[in-house]
Specification:
- Helix 3 packs across helix 4 and helix 12 runs parallel beside helix 14.
- By secondary structure, this protein is α/β, with parallel strands linked by helices.
- It folds into three domains: about 290 residues, FAD/NAD(P)-binding domain (3-Layer(bba) Sandwich), CATH 3.50.50; about 110 residues, Succinate dehydrogenase/fumarate reductase flavoprotein, catalytic domain (Flavocytochrome C3, Chain A, domain 1); about 80 residues, Methane Monooxygenase Hydroxylase, Chain G, domain 1 (Up-down Bundle), CATH 1.20.58.100.
- The strands form five sheets. Strands 1, 2, 6, 7, 8, 9 and 16 form a seven-stranded mixed beta sheet that branches. The chain has a four-stranded antiparallel beta sheet with strand order 11-14-13-12, covered by helices on one side.
- The structure holds flavin-adenine dinucleotide.
- Flavin-adenine dinucleotide binds next to helix 1, strand 2, helix 2, helix 5 and strand 7.
- The site of flavin-adenine dinucleotide has 43 residues, from helix 1, strand 2, helix 2, helix 5 and strand 7.
């Protein structure tokens, strides 16, 4: 059993920024970060486009960023939250820079700003097309130097330790040491879920293997409120290169740079769907591509960059250029095959403006949370922003309350698990089937019948699993499949509950 003041589950931008802030402010407090892979592996590492922050007030304003966010969210963002996040963004960007993150600059010293779908101004601060990698480099380097941050890599959180004696409260988590196969009980005054997204519930996703919705599933089992899971954002332009996982993203900034979407016939089709054409918000572009694919019975459309200045393209998007070249596509000559892929969970663990969930002492920050910022469709590059703003707000709140009496240790039964090695093929086959059902019936365009059928099919799969595997058994694969079942059920249930189409949610049977 390990005792700590702050247990942070996840080491992406949300988890590490929070850890650094607490460590800087309170050297006498213990901070423990557990992360299920190496410290670097996260959705954050793959972020390309950048972080949306107003920095050039001569051409842009907070008001305009707020308006763009509200429009993308299709009427169901929490306006107060949107205003708060946009207004606090510039300070948080300064902090990332103070921790060593470097962002591209123009010759006059100002930030080089990109444009992306749904933004009416160039406001995306970036590091070439590798913004997430650069942010992770800086956060990692800062965190590992801090003596009061302890990091347990290759440790997977299985479940939260909660007490329901008075009102529900969280007191830590049960963790599996992946390499040694040992169970650890971590007792914490504050537990912060920073466990990221859930793209792995679909077959075709930009998210790496770690994105299995663990934090949301654990919070659900603990009784926390989970909201708006029906709003899964599909990125319109993932590189169509079957069998490569996770699929490589062709950043929205490429469309901001002037690339044109073309269908199988070579037609630039976006004008038929939205007057903003390629720069409409993601939900609209993804649905337009989906419709073209159905009409032409094809697997992908094309992103045409052949008319763009190739030298500038290479300079702005070195990793995208290199990736295309390695698979024999020269963006100066060949159009890039692309298709929509599951990318981001707009919903998640419901939190207030301090990052606090509906369970005392349990916080959620970053992609696993539902703050109200994104509404029905996240505006591009707003999620890194949300993560740093909520890491800060949660840090402030937990520092104020760390010594409250309800955070003192209480007695409760510790769950028992037996670490086992099971037939991996069986679990992998269940996971594949689950992903196929979700991709087929719970994708960009849904139907009520399809959702109901998917619910039945997933329930049957889960029963098959439960008939074979004892509830007390655990392993990294078992943790993953159990969480994926929970996430799939949440997405389907919330979809069936939704009676009006909004943003990223579209059911042909309702209007
Ligand atoms: C390809 C790609 C490009 C993107 N581009 C952009 C962009 O340009 N701008 C933007 O704003 N957003 C972008 N996004 C979205 C953004 O990157 C993520 O939403 C954001 O990085 C999430 O940060 P996070 O800290 O919440 O989670 P993550 O960065 O995903 O970190 C989650 C952490 O939790 C750990 N973890 C998960 N489960 C467990 C468990 N059970 N036990 C222990 N540890 C666990 C993981 O190992 C990981 O360390 C992109 C996403 C992808 C995939």
């Amino acid at each position: 059993m390990i005792h700590t003041d702050f247990l942070i589950i996840g080491s992406g931008i949300a988890g590490l920024s929070y850890a650094i802030k607490v460590a800087e402010d309170a050297p006498h407090h213990d901070i423990l970060v557990v992360t299920k892979n190496d410290l670097n592996e996260s959705n954050t590492k793959y972020a390309q486009g950048g972080i949306a922050v107003v920095t050039d007030y001569s051409k842009d304003s907070a008001q305009q960023h707020i308006k763009d966010t509200l429009i993308a969210g299709d009427g169901i963002c929490d306006q107060e939250v949107v205003e708060m996040v946009v207004n606090e963004g510039p300070e948080r960007l300064k902090e990332l820079i103070s921790w060593g993150a470097q962002f591209d600059r123009n010759s006059d010293g100002g930030f080089s700003l990109e444009n992306e779908g749904g933004h009416t101004k160039h406001r995306v601060v970036h590091h070439k097309d590798m913004t997430g990698r650069e942010i992770m480099r800086a956060l990692r380097a800062t965190a590992i130097q801090m003596s009061n941050i302890k990091i347990l890599s290759f440790h997977t959180a299985i479940d939260l330790l909660t007490s329901k004696s008075k009102s529900s409260s969280c007191h830590g988590a049960v963790i599996l040491d992946n390499l040694k196969g040992e169970i650890k009980h971590i007792i914490a005054k504050n537990t912060i879920l920073a466990s990221g997204g859930a793209g792995q519930v679909y077959t075709f996703t930009t998210n790496p293997d770690i994105a299995t919705g663990d934090g949301i599933a654990m919070a659900k089992r603990a009784g926390a409120k989970i909201e708006e899971m029906e709003f899964i954002q599909f990125h319109p332009t993932a590189l169509y290169y079957p069998d490569k996982k996770p699929v490589f993203l062709i950043s929205e900034a490429v469309r901001g740079f002037g690339a044109i979407l073309r269908n199988k016939e070579g037609e630039a089709f976006m004008y038929r769907y939205d007057e903003r054409k390629e720069l409409a918000s993601r939900d609209i572009v993804a649905r337009a591509i989906h419709s073209e694919l159905k009409k032409n019975n094809s697997s992908h459309v094309y992103l045409d960059c052949t008319h763009l200045d190739n030298e500038k393209f290479k300079h702005h998007f070195p990793s995208i250029h290199e990736k295309c070249m390695t698979i024999g596509i020269n963006p100066a000559i060949n159009m890039i095959p692309v298709a929509p892929a599951a990318h981001y969970v707009c919903g998640g663990i419901k939190v207030n403006k301090d990052g606090l969930s509906s369970i005392s002492n349990l916080y959620a920050i970053g992609e696993c949370s539902r703050t109200g910022l994104h509404g029905a469709n996240r505006l591009a590059s707003n999620s890194l922003l949300e993560a740093v703003v909520y890491a800060h707000r949660t840090y402030q709140h937990t520092m104020l309350t760390v010594n409250d009496s309800n955070k003192q240790e209480i007695q409760f039964d510790l769950p028992n698990y037996e670490v086992v090695k099971l037939n991996n093929e069986f679990i992998q086959s269940l996971q594949r089937q689950l992903q196929e059902i979700m991709s087929h019936s719970v994708g960009i365009v849904r139907t009520t019948k399809g959702l109901t059928k998917a619910q039945e099919e997933i329930t049957t799969l889960e029963q098959k699993f439960n008939n074979q595997v004892n509830l007390k058994f655990t392993s990294t694969e078992l943790i993953t499949i159990r969480n994926l079942f929970t996430i799939a059920h949440l997405i389907i249930k919330h979809s069936l509950d939704r009676k009006i189409n909004k943003g990223g949610y579209y059911n042909v049977d309702i209007s």
